[in-house]
């Protein structure tokens, strides 16, 4: 296996280990435990003198293939696969902190991520300051003597704001803090946080990595030292391990990631360009369009656009509901990254628990809609939007 392989090759072959049967497709090892030939072999395995698995909560062969393939793609030394994206986020943040530590996080976060830093962490004496992450000066101002972790997502959910990952990482390095990036929206293909200076990358593999709406999964990636020092024991003893069945599903899903993301990005771009011309639409936000407010940072840190489009309808909630109800291809769902186009109204679903003020800060209005492009034919998707918009007053 070559480190120089390009992503499409890595994602088909990376990390594959074959059993004595030489199977073509990756095998699923649905086993909780492993047996040892002798007592001495068990003793040696537990002492760490021999390579091998001990118990599926610690690691297992199918999960190992998934972790190695993700490491190759991300350019990371080591990884741990988790049962969901949230298990990955919670583990990545909590495993390295203790009471008295401080987190600075961008306020535009996936709802559950925001709950982890804003509500859960303080229960254990870990304080958090939420900032408007678009301006580096806000990160700098929020730094305290005890700041240990910077946490961000870019592009953000749902309004696709972008944060300067290299800039935030530089600030963190000055004070010895670690930067954790939730890279779900960019996908591992379009943005490489570790190359930009971040220390830890997390994914909800539920999204583009499965990409076919089947199972939950997550992954934490970093260097070997950080994983050994912080995540290794936390992961073994708190039990967020991924099911080997899901690891297998995700291994098969990830083979087609580049094909799917390419088509989704093309579809999203076409929808964004189409919507920008429509009288019912007040604003379109799409990383990849020249009119994105942070097009300069996107050019610096992303190699592709996005599979998601955010837009605002002039007619508010009524218009958003009418559009969603009239669409025949895009299905109403709060999920994203699926091969099926999905559409959601954040103010009444994913972001309904925020205060009006917090929603305003994030640019989520009653007319904001988030579209996650699927892999359908882009002509059909655009024609469907054109037809459905007739149900919406200009
Ligand atoms: C979906 C998502 C998560 C959570 O992932 P699950 O697999 O649903 O637990 C975290 N961050 C972002 C940006 C997401 O989109």
Structural write-up:
- By secondary structure, the protein is an alpha/beta fold.
- It has two domains: 7-254, 3-Layer(aba) Sandwich (Aspartate Aminotransferase, domain 2); 257-391, Aspartate Aminotransferase, domain 1.
- Helix content is 40%, strand content 15%.
- The chain has 15 helices and twelve strands.
- The strands form two sheets. Strands 1-7-6-5-4-2-3 form a seven-stranded mixed beta sheet, with helices on both faces. Strands 8-9-12-11-10 form a five-stranded mixed beta sheet.
- Helix 3 packs parallel to helix 10 and helix 4 (85-94) packs parallel to helix 5.
- The longest helix is centred in the last third of the chain and has 20 residues, at 257-276.
- It is globular.
- The relative contact order is 0.12.
- The mean pLDDT is 97.
- The structure holds pyridoxal-5'-phosphate.
- Pyridoxal-5'-phosphate (PLP) binds next to helix 4 and helix 5.
- Residues 84-86, 89, 110, 112-113, 153, 157, 182, 184-185, 204, 206-207, 216, 218 line the site of pyridoxal-5'-phosphate (PLP).
């Amino acid at each position: 296996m070559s480190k120089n392989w390009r992503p499409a090759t890595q994602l088909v072959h990376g990390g594959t280990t074959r059993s004595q049967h030489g199977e073509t497709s990756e095998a699923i090892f649905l086993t909780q435990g492993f047996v040892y030939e002798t007592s001495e072999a068990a003793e040696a395995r537990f002492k760490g003198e021999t390579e091998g698995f001990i118990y599926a909560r610690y690691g297992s062969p199918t999960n190992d293939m998934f972790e190695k393939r993700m490491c190759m793609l991300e350019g990371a030394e080591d990884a741990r696969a988790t049962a969901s994206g949230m298990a990955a986020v919670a583990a990545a943040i909590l495993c390295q902190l203790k009471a008295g530590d401080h987190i600075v996080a961008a306020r535009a976060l996936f709802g559950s991520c925001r709950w982890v830093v804003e509500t859960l962490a303080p229960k254990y004496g870990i304080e958090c300051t939420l900032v408007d992450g678009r301006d580096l000066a806000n990160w700098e101002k929020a730094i305290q003597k005890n700041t240990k972790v910077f946490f961000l997502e870019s592009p953000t959910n749902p309004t696709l704001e972008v944060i300067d990952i290299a800039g935030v990482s530089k600030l963190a390095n000055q004070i010895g803090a670690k930067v954790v990036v939730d890279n779900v929206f960019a996908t591992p293909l379009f943005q490489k946080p570790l190359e930009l200076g971040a220390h830890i990358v997390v994914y909800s593999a539920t999204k583009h990595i499965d990409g076919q709406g089947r199972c939950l999964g997550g992954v934490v990636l970093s260097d070997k030292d950080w994983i050994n020092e912080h995540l290794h024991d936390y992961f073994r003893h708190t039990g967020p391990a991924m099911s080997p069945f899901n690891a297998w599903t995700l291994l098969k899903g990830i083979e087609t990631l580049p094909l799917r993301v390419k088509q989704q990005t093309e579809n999203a771009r076409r929808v964004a360009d189409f919507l920008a011309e429509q009288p019912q639409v007040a604003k379109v936000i799409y990383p990849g369009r020249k009119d994105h407010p942070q097009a300069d940072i996107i050019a610096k840190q992303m190699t592709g656009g996005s599979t998601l489009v955010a837009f605002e309808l002039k007619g508010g909630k009524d218009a958003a509901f009418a559009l969603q109800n009239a669409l025949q291809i895009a299905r109403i769902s709060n999920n994203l990254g699926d091969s099926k186009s999905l559409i959601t109204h954040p103010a009444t679903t994913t972001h309904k628990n925020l205060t009006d003020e917090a929603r305003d800060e994030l640019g989520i209005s009653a007319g904001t809609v988030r579209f996650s492009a699927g892999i359908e034919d882009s002509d059909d998707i655009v024609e469907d939007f054109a037809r459905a918009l007739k149900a919406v007053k200009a």
